[in-house]
Design brief:
This protein has helices spanning 4-16, 31-35, 44-54, 92-102; strands spanning 66-72, 78-84, 88-91. It has one domain (4-102). 36% of the residues lie in helices and 16% in strands. The longest helix is centred in the N-terminal third of the chain and has 13 residues, at 4-16. It has 112 residues and is of the alpha+beta class. The protein has a three-stranded antiparallel β-sheet with strand order 1-2-3.
């Protein structure tokens, strides 16, 4: 039986995967289309549709159970959250930053 813990494990695996990371498949989140679009661009629906096409069980969730929302932080920064169910919120900015640092695309200039 698939419960909420297994669904969260599927979503976490999907978020940690690189897009096109599996040979012959476009499985994985397209963070570039989500984060590199203009701040006013309506990109949430495309991101959720991609998630649902990669993880078909999510098609059974309603719009209230799987949603993205953003919060302004400063003048030109938006923090994007993914909410699954009623209480679980994932900060997609942190997930993307961890993925970039894991792949060596960001550097700490103050590192010794």
């Amino acid at each position: 039986m698939i419960d909420s813990n297994k669904i969260m494990a599927m979503i976490e695996h999907w978020l940690e995967s690189e897009i096109n990371g599996y040979f012959g498949s476009d499985y994985g989140p397209d963070f570039n289309s989500l984060f590199l679009a203009p701040l006013s661009a309506p990109v949430a629906n495309n991101f959720i549709e991609k998630m649902k096409s990669d993880i078909p069980i999510l098609k059974q969730l309603s719009a209230d159970q799987l949603q993205l929302w953003s919060q302004d932080e400063g003048f030109e920064t938006k923090v994007i959250y993914l909410r699954v169910g009623n209480q679980i919120a994932i900060n997609l900015n942190q997930v993307r930053d961890m993925q970039l640092s894991r792949n060596g695309e960001t550097y700490d200039v103050d590192a010794s």
